[in-house]
Design brief:
Keywords: 4Fe-4S, Iron, Iron-sulfur, Metal-binding, S-adenosyl-L-methionine
Number of domains: 2
Pfam families: DUF8061, Fer4_12
Number of strands: 17
Helix content: 25-40%
Strand content: 15-25%
CATH topology of the largest domain: TIM Barrel
Distance between the termini: 57 Å
Largest sheet: 11 strands, mixed
InterPro entries: Aldolase_TIM, DUF8061, MJ0021-like, MoaA_NifB_PqqE_Fe-S-bd_CS, rSAM, rSAM_sf
GO molecular function: 4 iron, 4 sulfur cluster binding; catalytic activity; metal ion binding
Number of helices: 11
CATH class of the largest domain: Alpha Beta
Radius of gyration: 24 Å
Cofactor: [4Fe-4S] cluster
Structural class: alpha/beta
Strand order of the largest sheet: 1-2-11-10-9-8-7-6-3-4-5
CATH architecture of the largest domain: Alpha-Beta Barrel
Length: about 350
């Protein structure tokens, strides 16, 4: 099979898994089911905030009640959800509850699930049939792949997803060959990344880092080599670079969320929410907006001791020498996540 390329800088053979196709378009929300995991990979990238803790998040939002999941999925206009962790299958009843909730709201929503479970507990997957569409296994060797043969008749699209670790061509090649002969549909090779939580472990093992990105040097080259070597196998192989997840997929999801959740007076710039901030005598500010600028109520909002409005209005007030002495003005840029996060504050 010929090697093809996506508009998100990833490369693949065969047909991309549906979960990947939706993810690339920013149409997947990420449901962190639990931080619990029994595998203890030395390269685990999960943050200290979540690692080994039984807590759940939907995108950047901590799940306090199950309705939070549906609210966030709608806010992002997502067409599917990925269940991740930790190892979601350690909390399979929670997976079932969340999957039922999502499917009952939208039966066409696509759910894929990652797991490192490869022992007898994997039979519990049966509970998720009809709710989860795609299952991706994190395996360490070809023996673990072969041990999964007996479950491939379950009603899921099965794949393998592993990091592409430099210098491990032979090990990963054996996994690819075994997955292909066993009947798996696809294998994803994720670019090996370093994070705040795994940096020490990777450094001690002699890995070299690309200081301009979060990549480990050599991972991309290895992945391309593996695609070229095994492109004629009947299994689809996808190399997923870190830039796809960190820049493209996340950015596209934020763009969708920004468009869906922005307020009337807000603009979108480079997937960020942009607005004007006015600080001073609230009554005087509102009087000026209504009486002098003749703007409608939907063009401003009072929040405690501040008034938010369109950035151009804040800019106009800042240019009024008399008024700017009484009203502090600024342009605020925020990530369009559940709890807005200011990334740039520009005093005028």
């Amino acid at each position: 099979m010929a090697i093809k390329y996506t508009d998100a800088n990833s490369s693949y053979t065969g047909k991309l898994a549906k979960g990947c196709r939706l993810c690339i378009k920013g149409k997947k929300s990420v449901l962190f089911v639990t931080g619990l995991c029994n595998i203890n990979c030395y390269y685990c990238p999960v943050s200290n905030e979540k690692k080994n803790k039984d807590i759940s998040y939907i995108n950047e939002r901590k799940i306090e009640k199950k309705e939070d999941i549906l609210e966030e999925v709608k806010a992002c206009v997502s067409k599917g959800v990925s269940f991740t962790g930790g190892d979601p299958l350690l909390k399979i009843n929670k997976c079932l509850e969340y999957a039922k909730l999502i499917k009952e709201e939208d039966s066409k929503s696509h759910i894929h699930l990652y797991t490192g479970t490869t022992d007898k507990k994997i039979n519990n997957l049966k509970k998720l049939e009809g709710y989860v569409d795609e299952v991706r296994f994190h395996v360490k060797n070809e023996k673990e792949v072969e041990a999964l043969k007996n479950i491939l008749d379950m009603d899921f699209n099965f794949g393998i997803e592993i990091p592409s670790i430099p210098s491990e061509f032979e090990r990963i090649s054996k996994i690819i060959k075994s997955a292909s002969s066993s009947g798996f549909s696809f294998i994803n090779l994720n670019e090996f990344e370093y994070t705040e939580t795994n940096w020490d472990n990777l450094s001690k093992r002699g890995f070299n880092f690309d200081n301009d990105t979060s990549m480990v040097e050599g991972s991309k080259d290895l992945s391309i080599h593996l695609l070229e070597e095994h492109q004629d196998l009947p299994i689809s192989i996808h190399f997923c670079p870190s830039v796809l997840k960190d820049a493209i997929q996340l950015r596209r999801r934020w763009e969708r969320r920004a468009k869906k959740t922005k307020k009337y007076y807000e603009d979108i710039e480079d997937c960020l929410i942009v607005k004007g901030e006015l600080t001073g005598d609230i009554i005087e500010i509102i009087k000026y907006l209504k009486d002098e600028l003749k703007i409608s109520k939907k063009m401003y909002e009072v929040d405690k001791n501040k008034v938010f409005t369109h950035w151009a209005i804040a800019e106009e007030i800042s240019e009024n020498k008399k008024l700017s002495k009484k009203i502090k003005t600024a342009i605020v840029k925020e990530y369009p996540i559940y709890k807005r996060l200011i990334v740039e504050y520009i005093p005028l």
